[in-house]
Amino acid sequence: LEKSMLEFTENLLHEIKGLKQDAQNTILGGRVTSMEQYRHLMGRVEGYVFVESVIQHLLKQNPID
Fold it and tell me: Which pTM value belongs to this model?
C-alpha cells in the first residue's frame, strides 16, 4: 500500500473505533430510552465491529514492504 493509502486507512479505522466507542458509551452509560434505540445502537456497534475486522483483514493480506 502507498503511504497515503495507509494513512487514509489508519484514519478510517480511528474514526470507526471512535464511532463504536460513542455508541457503546451511550449503551453502557444508561442513556438508552427505549428498546428500539438499544437495538439500533447495538446494530451500529455490530456494523462497526464488522467493518473494522474487514479492514484489518485486508491490511494483513497486503502488508507494507
Answer: 0.84
